């Protein structure tokens, strides 16, 4: 009798163990489903945000607006110089820097700000930056482009009188690597082509950088590449 009771107890315990394992497996399955749903939901939200943030002008390959200042069809050689001072010197370009004096936001996009450099590389700026990309026509306002630089963007400024073959090379440079890059025209500056950036050090205001090239040369593309790689993603307010 005792043997039969012990056997029943073992069978009951075994049945309860199996039932507990089944409940645990079911709970795990439900949990995986919930987590998957949450992940998919978050992914959908992220995609919407990325599309909204990166859409800007809704233009292909980050080209905004009309105009043909930077036509396609140019070609550039493989990079040979990677050190910025050496590349700038070889291209006949000048490197300068200045301490930033403000990171203040303004709310009037038409407010006139006197910047320390031309083209500007730091200072007060409009609270909404421009979209990254290439602008073959009218460029965004300086107060927006300075904000882009605060976010770690590198801006290439080009005199529209630069020969078309040189402007084609600028377009090829942009197409080579568009990440966090802005290319605009700037008629009134002391350079044929320039690049600017806003570095984060020293905190909290950082340092503005300019590379100015008074004329085009064969080394300008490598100098622009080296400047881009030295200063991109290094702004006082890092934004991907």
Biggest pleated-sheet summary: 6 strands, mixed
Q: Structural class, from helix and strand content?
A: alpha/beta
Distance between the termini: 76 Å
Q: How many separate domains make up the residues?
A: 2
Given as residue ranges, the uncertain stretches (5+ residues, pLDDT < 50) are: 32-60
Radius of gyration: 28 Å
Biggest β-sheet: strands ordered side by side in the sheet? 1-8-7-5-6-4
Structural summary, described in words:
It is a single chain. By secondary structure, this protein is α/β, with parallel strands linked by helices. It has two domains: about 1-55; about 60-230, no CATH class. Helix content is about 40%, strand content about 15%. It has helices at about 1-55, 85-90, 140-150, 165-175, 220-230; strands at about 95-100, 105, 125, 135, 155-160, 180-185, 195-200, 205-215. It has a six-stranded mixed β-sheet with strand order 1-8-7-5-6-4. Strands 2-3 form a two-stranded parallel sheet. Helix 2 (about 85-90) packs antiparallel against helix 5.
In terms of topology, how is this protein built?
Blueprint: H1 2-55, H2 84-91, E1 93-99, E2 105-106, E3 125-126, E4 133-134, H3 142-150, E5 154-158, H4 164-176, E6 181-185, E7 193-199, E8 207-213, H5 220-231
Parallel strand pairs: 2-3, 4-6, 5-6
Antiparallel strand pairs: 1-8, 5-7, 7-8
Helix pairs in contact: 2-5
Q: Concise description?
A:
It contains five helices and eight strands. It has helices at 2-55, 84-91, 142-150, 164-176, 220-231, and strands spanning 93-99, 105-106, 125-126, 133-134, 154-158, 181-185, 193-199, 207-213.
